What does this fold into?
Amino acid sequence: MINLPVIATDLDRTLLPNGSQEYDGSMAIFCRIIRNERLNLIYATGRNLELVQDAIAEFRLPYPELVVGEVGTKIYSRRNQDFVEDYQWTRQIRSLTKNWNVDKFKEKLSLLNQLRIQERNKENEFKLSYYLDDPRDSSLVSKKVTEIIEPICKDTIVVYSVDETRDLGLLDILPRRATKLAALEYLRKKLGLDQREIIYCGDSGNDTLPLTFGYKSIIVRNAVSELKNTVRRISTEKNIIDKLYIARGYKKLNGYYVSGIIEGLIKFNVISPRYAE
It folds into this structure.
């Protein structure tokens, strides 16, 4: 049974305190909130399942009901402390994505010397990922990548984000119907949830689509300014700015990482302000 609302959150540098900003020790408070308020969790992350499980163990995270992994290309549901892949999602991606051809993408993109392909364990059938060593080139390179791959497969999207701890750009090529947002909408409809029953939390470029879709959205304080400005602008244009909260610190919460999620849940009246005291 899904208890409402559902908290869907990115992991690295959103829920996880693994960035360069100060961590205020609030993960234990978050775990208590999930337990006491009986809220359900979805982890929506670029990590694969093995790395999600590593994070759960390392940071003592609550177990989620669902995992949207590898930037939306994989979905897993929890059975006790194990996870089972949703192959219906994979079949749906495959049926809706015509002319997807990773080998052709790689061949054409090898001409761009700004790109460095990521490790094989960070790829799958529907996820091709590169590092961009100079993030200042992101706009130009993203545009070039789009121009190169669209003639091969029109059903693609280029998603760019930044690993601020390593000053690295992260560029993912995905089917248009296999983003974090697409996966969340698939799950929402499958579970019979209303859009208003989901709260999304993020910090980087691959969170832009779900942060600006119309869910209640929380951006943690340590998110890069570019993301905050982009999401604020799009939300204003779509007249959903009232559904956006950008953490800045509240009482004993400093607003960074998990602390910002708690702050946002308070501001959206999901939990009591006593959790910040």
